[in-house]
From TrEMBL:
GO CC term (a single one): outer membrane-bounded periplasmic space
Protein name per UniProt: Penicillin-binding protein
Residues annotated as domain Penicillin-binding protein transpeptidase: 316-568
Residue spans crossing the bilayer: 7-29
Catalytic activity: Preferential cleavage: (Ac)2-L-Lys-D-Ala-|-D-Ala. Also transpeptidation of peptidyl-alanyl moieties that are N-acyl substituents of D-alanine; [GlcNAc-(1->4)-Mur2Ac(oyl-L-Ala-gamma-D-Glu-L-Lys-D-Ala-D-Ala)](n)-di-trans,octa-cis-undecaprenyl diphosphate + beta-D-GlcNAc-(1->4)-Mur2Ac(oyl-L-Ala-gamma-D-Glu-L-Lys-D-Ala-D-Ala)-di-trans,octa-cis-undecaprenyl diphosphate = [GlcNAc-(1->4)-Mur2Ac(oyl-L-Ala-gamma-D-Glu-L-Lys-D-Ala-D-Ala)](n+1)-di-trans,octa-cis-undecaprenyl diphosphate + di-trans,octa-cis-undecaprenyl diphosphate + H(+)
A GO term for molecular function: peptidoglycan glycosyltransferase activity
Organism ancestry: Bacteria, Bacillati, Bacillota, Bacilli, Bacillales
């Protein structure tokens, strides 16, 4: 009796200690909280239509999908073959453990496993494959933490997203794409039973390695599913006879299209979103970009068909939605494999006359109008601060040797007019205005800045023109709209505030002046600069071309699309061939026409603060019925001309327009300001 009492006391003590230990472990597991469920997996990049355009390439394919996006057949098949009591136990199936131990004793070796799905998931997430007691205890602790902090469905989701299915496919989504070229949610019963059998031994049960063994294991799984009540007998037979079509490769390829664009996106993930290299490559990110695959394809096709294979000319190209700054197409060079250097966002090149619209925006703000006139003639500028004399030249040294209007100066790209305007406004004005338009590269405060002698990037110039197109709202080149982590949580979203930064009225008057490069009514001592491509136009455009000895530009827009092209040699060699000089304009118009082919023709809508009047384009005065040419021209209200043209009539103007007496002749304003 004494021994029995001692045994009970000692037994009770150890039981109490055991219970305290178990309670302590459980409390500690609860205090530790939910373990992180992230695993290395591929990051995917999506176009604006939701299709995959690229992915990180780290040698393994991993894609995380939610529980509800996994086929119910696959979930049931996995539970049936791996852990039939999954929803009943709390991480450990003690009945199964005892049965496995008995089977091992009878066979005198390890013949049956007893790990639950929760245990296998813990092992996949955190632990090595060594078979020490320390590893087993740690695995058990992680299993407790999983069971205490996550639902069964969440654990099953994690397990199916981490197990290895062979051939570099980790997780059910990668496996579904590799074996059947479909998403995991679309798997049939036959396909699900086939996939569920692979993780036991991918090198044995992969249908690409041994179809017979894979088929036999599929049959076992289907029978088990029927026995457990997941499927009926008729479903079993139908699935067993289902003809499976195997794929054998991953459909998404790294940077399959738009490699220059993808490089920019990765750079933005680092600099704008603030992610490190490992997260970008292995974080299972879903990166939603602004790329329009159709526009990208058009841009690449136009580039290839326009530029001769024998030419060494390079290009940078950017297309953008002017309403929000979303970059819809980008080319950084003619061949990414030969040169990944991105000329659309990295190269700083002289923009030539494409800088003039920014100058003339500032001029319109300071009181200029489309009818403001100055002489186009050889002019030498002399400075009191010791700077050398400066004599700008027009293309081919061609001048009006007469007065021309601001509208003509822009359409004909008159350099003398531009330099005079820049000096009159003050050489810092254009620099400040360019910053307003989003130009970030450093610009020199010199008279020749009006002619684009300071380098800029293609993307920032396209952004500036987009602001002219959208009515003066702030936009900047944007490549990423949203980034999600592997769980689907949004970790970045584009939330730009498109504030009004330009004067609406002034901006609209400028945009209408920019249509002049395509309007022969503004021809004068030279033809308008868009003459060579007018015949290819099917809708209204506004734009500006620009040339230097080594650079050729064309930037322009319709209300719904802006595009810019730079062409030239990487080393800055002069462009001498006539064909090479025309590449930029031809690429631009061909892209715009094809990209907008199925889009409605939209007009530029004037704001309330502008008025339109018919003017004689030669002198900027109100046109009469005697003027051979008149052009509808927009002005800020109150700045429109009031004087009628008296050049094209033999009658005194007061006889023709009694209600508008002829004004007294005044000395032109520029002669009162400029001494030359």
């Amino acid at each position: 009796m004494k021994y029995l009492r001692a045994f009970i006391i000692i037994g009770g003590f150890f039981t109490a200690v055991g219970l305290i230990l178990v309670a302590g472990v459980l409390m500690f597991a609860k205090i530790q909280g939910p373990p992180p469920l992230s695993v290395p997996q591929s990051s995917l990049y999506y176009a604006n239509d939701g299709s995959v355009i690229g992915e990180s390439n780290n040698g393994q394919k991993r894609y995380w999908v939610r529980y509800e996006n996994i086929s119910p057949y696959l979930r049931d098949a996995t539970i049936a073959i791996e852990d039939k009591n999954f929803y009943e136990h709390h991480g450990f199936d003690f009945k199964r453990i005892a049965g496995a131990a008995l089977a091992d004793v009878k066979a005198m070796s390890k013949v049956e496993g007893a790990s639950t799905i929760s245990q296998q998931y813990a092992r996949n997430l955190y632990l090595t494959r060594d078979k020490t007691w320390n590893r087993k205890l740690t695995e058990a602790f992680y299993t407790l933490r999983l069971e205490m902090n996550y639902s069964k469905n969440k654990i099953l989701e994690g397990y199916l997203n981490t197990i290895y299915y062979g051939h570099g496919a980790y997780g059910v989504e990668a496996a579904s794409r590799y074996y059947f070229n479909k998403d995991a949610k679309d798997l049939t019963l036959g396909e699900s039973a086939m996939l569920a059998g692979i993780p036991k031994g991918p090198s044995i049960y992969s249908p690409f390695i041994s179809f017979d063994k894979a088929k036999k294991r599929q049959a076992i799984i289907l029978q088990t599913m029927n026995k457990l009540g997941y499927i009926t007998k008729s479903q079993l037979h139908a699935a067993a006879q289902e003809h499976l079509q195997f794929y054998g490769k991953f459909p998404a390829q790294h940077a399959a299209i738009a490699p220059y664009f993808n490089d920019v996106v990765k750079h933005e993930l680092k600099t704008k979103v603030g992610l490190d290299e490992r997260t970008i490559e292995l974080g299972g990110l879903r990166v939603y970009t602004t790329l329009d695959k159709k526009q990208q394809q058009i841009a690449e096709e136009v580039m290839k068909e326009t530029i001769s294979d024998q030419s060494d000319i390079q290009l940078g190209f950017v297309a953008m939605d002017p309403t929000n700054g979303y970059v819809t197409a980008l080319i950084g060079g003619r061949d990414y494999e030969k040169s990944p250097y991105n000329r659309a966002v990295q190269a700083v090149r002289q923009p030539g006359s494409t800088m003039k619209p920014l100058l003339y925006y500032a001029a319109l703000q300071k009181g200029f109008t489309p009818s403001t006139t100055m002489r186009s003639e050889v002019t030498t500028f002399r400075f009191d601060d010791g700077r050398p004399d400066y004599t700008p030249h027009n293309f081919n040294n061609n001048y009006a040797n007469d007065e021309i209007t601001l509208a003509q100066a822009l359409a004909l790209s008159d350099n003398v007019f531009a330099v005079k305007t820049n000096i009159f406004l003050g050489e810092g004005t254009l620099v400040d205005t360019a910053k307003q338009f989003g130009i970030t590269t450093k610009l020199a405060k010199v008279p020749s800045l009006a002619l684009g002698t300071s380098g800029v990037r293609v993307d920032e110039m396209v952004g500036a023109y987009s602001m002219i197109s959208n009515g003066g709202k702030k936009v900047e080149p944007t490549f990423i709209t949203r980034v999600e982590d592997y769980k689907g949580n949004v970790i970045y979203s584009d939330e730009q505030a498109h504030d009004q930064v330009l004067e609406k009225d002034t901006d609209f008057v400028l945009s209408q002046m920019m249509t002049g490069m395509f309007d022969p009514k503004l021809n004068d001592y030279a033809s308008v600069t868009g003459t060579s491509i007018i015949s290819q136009m099917s809708r209204p455009y506004a734009g500006k071309s620009g040339t230097t000895d080594s650079d050729s530009w064309m930037i322009g827009f319709a209300p719904q699309l802006t595009a810019g092209v730079w062409t030239g040699y990487d080393k800055g060699n002069p462009i001498t061939l006539t064909a090479d000089k025309l590449y930029a304009k031809n690429i631009w118009i061909r892209f715009m026409e094809r990209a907008l082919k199925d889009e409605p023709i939209q007009a530029f809508k004037p704001p309330k603060g502008v008025v339109a009047v018919q003017v004689d384009p030669d002198n900027g005065k109100l046109a009469t019925k005697d003027c051979p040419v008149s052009r509808l021209t927009y002005f800020k209200e109150g700045t429109e001309p009031t004087e009628y043209c008296d050049v094209h009539t033999g009658k005194p103007i007061e006889e023709k327009h009694q209600h508008k007496p002829a004004p007294k002749k005044k000395k032109p304003w520029y002669k009162r300001i400029f001494p030359w």
